[in-house]
Design brief:
56% of the residues lie in helices and 8% in strands. By secondary structure, it is an alpha+beta fold. A hairpin with a 2-residue loop joins strand 3 and strand 4. Helix 1 packs across helix 8, helix 4 runs antiparallel to helix 5 and helix 6 crosses helix 7.
């Protein structure tokens, strides 16, 4: 099995490079920028990340992370279990209540055409992010979201916390700040971000 991860680690492709590093599997990394002509050759939308698995193109960072976790039997609970349902619930919560706000802020900062950007929306996004991450902090049940085992939503959350810091969103609740510090000190994270 051969993996080619496509996308700069300054994008959500960081998640794919990180999980590949955590898994310790061989892969090639092409740090292509979104919407570049090279990225459009593998994904007509120009969006990254893309993971090519034995010639098959996979898109969407969370779908790719879930595939890799399932394929290698790590960072996930088994499909059909209550634990997996809870894990998937955390994934959806992070996407809906944190990442969606960060993505909207990014769109209104540098992605949308200037005439379509609304700077006035950003305080609302920051307020909602602050509220949502504080509620998420209350759900922590151990060193990771679900206790002692690191799962896909932990990686997703750590990446969103990094993104929020770069976007000047409110500081995380103390339990999330400690979690973020532990996650970004992991050797696989350091290797991934060095790309």
């Amino acid at each position: 099995m051969t993996y080619t991860a496509i996308g700069s680690v300054k994008t959500r492709a960081a998640r794919i490079v990180w999980i590949l590093e955590e898994l310790g599997v061989p892969y090639e990394h092409l740090p292509l920028r979104p919407a570049s002509s090279e990225a459009r050759q593998v994904n007509p939308s120009g969006k990254v990340p893309v993971l090519i698995v034995d010639g098959v193109t996979l898109t969407d960072s969370v779908a790719i992370m879930t595939y890799l976790a399932d394929k290698h039997g790590r960072f996930t609970y088994a499909a059909g279990t209550i634990e997996r349902a809870r894990q998937d619930g955390f994934t959806c919560l992070i996407l809906d209540e944190l990442e969606g706000l960060l993505w909207t802020a990014s769109r209104h900062s540098f992605i949308l055409p200037e005439e379509m950007r609304l700077a006035e929306i950003k305080p609302t996004l920051r307020w909602e992010y602050q509220r949502n991450q504080a509620r998420l902090a209350e759900a922590f049940s151990g060193p990771y979201l679900m206790g002692d085992m690191m799962t896909v939503p932990d990686m997703l959350l750590a990446h969103c916390l990094s993104w929020a810091g770069a976007a000047k969103f409110p500081d995380p609740a103390p339990v999330l700040a400690e979690f973020h510090a532990r996650m970004t000190a992991r050797p696989a994270w350091v290797r991934a971000m060095a790309r």
